[in-house]
Write a structure and sequence with these properties.
The complex is a heterotetramer, with two copies of chain A (265 residues) and two copies of chain B (246 residues). Chain A is built from ten helices and 13 strands. With 265 residues, chain A is of the alpha/beta class. In chain A, the strands form three sheets. In chain A, strands 1, 2, 4, 6, 10, 11, 12 and 13 form an eight-stranded mixed beta sheet that branches. Chain A has a three-stranded antiparallel beta sheet with strand order 7-9-8, covered by helices on one side. Chain A has a two-stranded parallel ribbon with strand order 3-5. The model of chain A has no long low-confidence stretch (mean pLDDT 96). Chain B has a seven-stranded mixed beta sheet, with helices on both faces. Chain B has a three-stranded mixed beta sheet with strand order 7-6-11, with no helix packed on it. In chain B, strands 3-4 form a two-stranded antiparallel ribbon. The chains are: A alpha/beta (265), B alpha/beta (246). Chains in contact: A-B, A-C, A-D, B-C, C-D.
């Protein structure tokens, strides 16, 4: 078994089929599966449903490339200097991508329901918000008290695609720093694909404590240093405002294909 | 870069400084406070409050460490530098849970639109039921706003497109504590948000003209004390407090 | 604030009032708040409702002492050589303690509901088990599909009482090795009491990653080396079969009071 | 210590060894396997299976490390030694979730009573609806049994009090794969558990007399091969396999 999970980026991305639901790890520009998203775009994948709490680069890119047909997320935007994700925004406004706007917490609740093997998760009332009605979230009678309780349906991704600092040949993945929703996504999804900065032969105790993605549910591991760029993957690299600008500049000029050819992996 | 309100008044401070100071003062009695994505002014307010008014304030943020003491303020509010010097670990999902349980004291939220009831819109601008402008999505706000005990709204723009009678779409609503803008400070009243104070560079007429709902008279916002400005400049030597005004 | 949370065992145990619900950390003889339980017995606390997934020593002791009036747990027994928890068993058989038998998973589900601020948690159907009927677990209609879904009501302890390896003066607690349900208990409970092998002045990064009990919800910290004995608290000490036998021998001879006087803290 | 079945037959092995070997063989095609509290024979079966039949078997247990390779078998199944050499971390709650999702392949469970349907009782013995004997509680079984794909029951006692027509209280029931006892191996059939094989030291009459429900004829359980016994003794030099028979 050991070793067979280590495949090329090309092979790993080929596991994803048109129409699959993908939970994407990381948050905003931190520890995101950026290179994997570029490869999906290069391979011309279509009809993907993307699941994320808060994202930007890879949502924007897959919306522009025509790979994503819908996005389940709480927040899609760059921060500060880069502002809104323009490709995503236009794709939604033009009806090419359906934005299933959630609260970040209802994405988490849907993933929790999937992780716990139940059809829904009760959540605190999102009083005054249009999100529950827009998403068709339903209420059930409180079986132990008064009133009704808001629920969120289980959200079961076909794949959790995570960029992690380290993985071993058996597919065990190690995350340093904030976990974001990565671990939950790995539990909720039917299967997991990892891209990793480093491939480990052995783990020390500190790494084992952080090895929260067991290999038995991981279908493929790609050794992919820099796989989070232009985002950050601490402690390896910071995010690059220059590379984000390069992406936005190229994409906004309609040169996404050239960008994808140039920026490899 | 658009003009920073108050910058022309030569007071030695302008809207970014005053907004941070006003928000910091509002944290004097807070127990726990949460700052989310793209929240530069709130992060600075927390740090200022902890230095001057409330050393026991517990700060929760996205990078996952409780009560960090970052050596610098990064340009991303998800940056691990915002975890530095923390005293324990707590994931964002667990911070949401904390709020859902009613244990979160103060949260900072913003909106592209804020209306008189305090409802915020981060979802989209609709016209005639049709999508006109897609916005970012509300991140954690739909949960945080109704479940945190007190929500401190801030918005670095104050105009009739931002402060409206009624939001196009209510992304979130809830327990509003105050709304801080570059022109004024609002608090909840019987008929919705009412003026609490007007910043020194703004007149009541200007505020009225820039606000999409009626407002009454109010005193002038107490200016920052020299110590507040000194500590703020120490905390924020790179003037990240101006990012939201660009 | 810092430092005010550090109190004596006596003071910490005094925070618990007659009739309170206590979630007890650890599992079987691992990292259990044993000394804290002895102190509760010494102080003559009554009417306690104990919450645990799998336990033995402290459940048995508080059942014998008359402190516990009910026990919510999935499993109460010693392992191997010591067999059943005889004091607990007799207390239940004689009607002095009510055993609210759960599956370990339904204890977890009830704590999760509390941690998430919702009145119940849906769980997979425990087909063929008497537990749901015995506990009065109710079903709700599946709002997103066919049939009904089993639920478990929120279980909100007044206190999570945890024995941890390390804590600091602000009440932040560090757990090394298996977490068991300790972190979940700390989220679900109204407040937390820690007993700790060591009090730290500062934490290193490894400790911070394991500092999963933030101090702001901790009411009291007791510096209590050996507080898990006769159970184990790795890496400080193993569990002591001799001390377990000493307890059972004394207790079965009706000498619990003398045992409590002798075995301090 | 009560008599260990088969010990008098001078075969070079007895019930503890044969039970472990039979269970290990049953794990030949397993993907994931869970062992819970006080599960000495199952732990040894997993280790034996991994050595001889199924090197890729993924073992999950309470101390929280996936696929550990302990250097010794401790006397507690919660002992951190059972986490040694693991390859990743997974809490018990998450193992339960895994089972609830239908992703757990094989689980080991036991019962003070096991009945013909495979239902187990770890809760209590009732007489006339009244509590007579309080048992330990079923730990994870009520969830694991119906949600794991295959449950391997074992019980180190085989008598009419343990193997009953109907349990006093059903703590758990579900997807039974096999039941292994010191006298025989059972599998699910049309009318409930049926004999698959009888251990070399037992006769059909003995098994019938010790079983609270009817059983038919069955061949003899294939004895352990020398290699199986050798590796088992290597894994378990302290004979923890006999604890459950004491």
């Amino acid at each position: 078994m050991a070793g067979k999970k280590l495949v090329s980026l090309d092979e790993a991305a080929s596991l994803v089929k048109d129409g699959d639901t993908l939970a994407l790890g990381g948050n905003l520009l931190y520890r995101i599966p950026a290179a994997f998203a570029r490869e999906l775009a290069r391979q011309g994948r279509r009809g993907l449903r993307l699941v994320k709490t808060a994202g930007n680069y890879e949502i924007d890119l897959l919306s522009r490339s025509g790979s994503a047909s819908s996005v389940v997320a709480g927040f899609v935007s760059f921060e500060a200097e880069f502002g809104l994700a323009p490709g995503f925004r236009r794709a939604v406004e033009e009806g090419r991508v359906s934005f299933e706007e959630n609260a970040c917490y209802t994405v988490i609740a849907g993933l929790r329901a999937a992780a716990y093997g139940v059809p829904f998760m009760p959540v605190a009332e999102l009083a005054g918000s249009r999100v529950p009605a827009d998403r068709g979230f339903r209420r059930v009678p409180n079986p132990y008290g008064e009133g009704e309780v808001l629920t969120v349906p289980a959200l079961i991704p076909d794949w959790a695609v995570l960029h992690v600092q380290k993985a071993d040949l058996r597919g065990n993945g190690v995350i340093h720093g904030p976990l974001f929703e990565d671990v939950l996504m790995a539990r909720a999804a039917r299967s997991v694909i990892l891209t990793a900065e480093e491939i480990l032969e052995e783990m020390d105790e500190g790494e084992l404590d952080r090895a929260l993605i067991p290999g038995f549910k991981v279908a493929a591991v790609v050794h992919l240093p820099g796989g989070g760029r232009p985002g950050a993957c601490p402690p390896y690299y910071e995010y690059s405002p220059v590379e984000v600008a390069e992406y936005l500049y190229a994409a906004e000029r309609g040169e996404l294909a050239a960008y994808l050819e140039k920026v490899r992996p | 870069m658009r003009k920073i309100p108050g910058a022309g008044a030569r007071l030695g401070y302008a809207a970014p400084e005053l907004m941070v100071v006003v928000m910091a003062r509002l944290l004097s009695d807070a127990t726990t406070v949460f700052t989310g994505v793209a929240s530069y002014l709130p992060v600075l307010a927390v740090l200022l409050a902890r230095r001057l008014y409330n050393p026991d304030l517990v700060w929760l943020n996205i990078p996952g460490r409780v009560n960090p003491a970052p050596s610098r303020i990064p340009r991303s509010t998800v940056h691990p530098a915002l975890a530095e010097g923390g005293e324990a670990s707590l994931t964002l999902a667990e911070i949401f849970d904390l709020s859902a349980r009613g244990e979160l004291d103060v949260a900072f939220l913003s909106g592209v639109q804020v209306d008189r009831t305090g409802a915020i819109n981060l979802s989209r601008i609709e016209e005639g039921g049709q999508l006109k402008v897609q916005l970012t999505g509300g991140a954690g706000s739909a949960l945080i706003y109704p479940t945190a005990r007190r929500t401190l709204l801030w918005r670095a723009k104050h105009d009739t497109r931002s402060l409206v009678e009624r939001v196009s779409v209510a992304t979130a609503a809830g327990n509003i504590y105050r709304l801080v803008t570059p022109l004024a400070l609002f608090r909840p009243g019987k008929e919705g948000l009412e003026l609490e104070s007007i910043h020194p560079w703004a007149s009541l007429e200007e505020v009225r003209a820039a606000t999409g709902f009626p407002v009454g008279e109010a005193p002038t916002t107490p200016p920052p004390r020299p110590e507040e400005l000194r500590v703020l400049r120490e905390i924020d030597p790179e003037k990240l407090r101006e990012i939201e005004f660009s």
